[in-house]
Amino acid sequence: MAARDPAAEGLAASAVSAGARISEELARAMQAWRRDFHRHPELGHQEHRTAARVAELLRSWGIVVHEGYGGTTGVIGVLDGRLGAGPTLGLRADMDALPMPDTGAHDHRSIHDGVAHACGHDGHTAILLGAARHLAEHPDFAGRVVLIFQPAEEPLTGAQALVDAGLFRDFPCDEVYGLHNNNCIGPGQVGVRTGAILSACDLFEIHIRGVGGHAAMPHQANDPIVAGAALVQSLQSVVSRNVSPFDTAVLSVCQFQAGSAINVIADHAVLRGTVRTLSREAQARVLERLRALCDGMASGYGCAFEFRHLLSSPPTLNQAGPVEHVKRAAAAVLGADRIVDPVTPLMASEDFAYLLDHCPGAYFFLGHDGLTCHHPEFDFDDALLPQGAAIFATLVYQRLAG
Question: Which of 16, 18, 298, 360 is 20 to 30 A from 47, comparing alpha carbons?
């Protein structure tokens, strides 16, 4: 264990009480990093340029870097405090962009057609980089910080890939924290809650195979469109009659594709949709009823129904202790009156949920001024950069005070 440094301990105590303060120079640097990432967005599992820049910066600050972790584009940084041994905190940022156009008027809009940082991951990456640099320059804590720069949040596969590669085996964490911008709360506010803060996500596809024929002779066919329409109607009862009124679920059929001619009964129809739920119980119940209705429709309409479960991720569930730690850090940085708790959960989904399945922690919102995520003109609110970095750094100083 390293020798205690009374002066450093005094700095750490000051950070605990007052919150970390991000310098104007670092705030400007964070803005430059963020806008550079925005101009050069990369899709999930393709974040090669972003990851290389992240690794380069971390190394320049003396942080130990594990690049290409687990065969992914993920980057893991490890920073030990100078006050000796202690717990380990994980801090996570997502790096990937969306497959959509950037139609914003800002000078740093995407240079890649059909790829845009329309969700704020450029800002999350810059925030964690800012926290990393501040902590590297002022490592006045006892323990270790694991900086998790994660690929592929948008397809909900990156966090699981890191976990499967052994993230918490190779870098054991006592707690893990993540954040996201959110314009549902005001600028300068932090939103957090115990329990579900984001929903589970399940994507499904249903293939219905019947018998095609002439539209004028439907009795000689077996129409999959009629069967599919009946199924869509029946699915409306899944949430209203199977999920507790005290729980929350959304089931949406978003695609219904069939037929090639105006006077031909199709022999094949495809339905696609999504299920969003705030509890594992509701998630399991809705999926069970979805499958059962497909089986019943197959029997009732004489068509073959094939249910395909394309993707599943759990709800993002915060633990009570880490939520209190977020509130304490946010209060030190922004003031206790800027905390929204409980914040209304969103029915959007996040694969940070996979990290919380393996490690206690909390996910919180930073209120931003501007458009909603996934809008083609979305641009991250740069005022959030020093706020987010300060909250991350303050979490470290408070939790690893020694």
Answer: 360
Picking from 265, 269, 196, 286, the residue whose alpha carbon sits closest to that of residue 227 is: 269
Cα 297 from Cα 309, distance rounded (Å): 18
φ/ψ of residue 224, rounded to 5: -70, -20
User: Hey, what are 29's tokens?
Assistant: 């640097």
b/e burial code for range 110-142 (CB count within 10 A of at least 16 → b): beeeebbbbbbbbbbbbbbbbbbbbbbebbbbb
Give which of 36, 19, 22, 20 is closest to 123, Cα–Cα: 36
Q: State pLDDT tens for residues 240-262.
A: 999 999 999 999 999 999 999 99
Walk me through the domains of the chain, giving residue ranges and CATH numbers. 6-198+315-399 (3.40.630.10), 200-313 (3.30.70.360)
Q: Say how far apart CA 265 and CA 214 lie, in whole Å.
A: 6
As given in the structure block, the two tokens for residue 82 are: 């100078």
Q: Which residues pair with residue 179 across a beta bridge? A: 364
Pairwise CA distance, residues 115 & 122, whole Å: 13
**pLDDT confidence of residue 367:** 97
- Cβ 303 vs Cβ 224: under 8 Å: yes
pLDDT given at position 17: 54
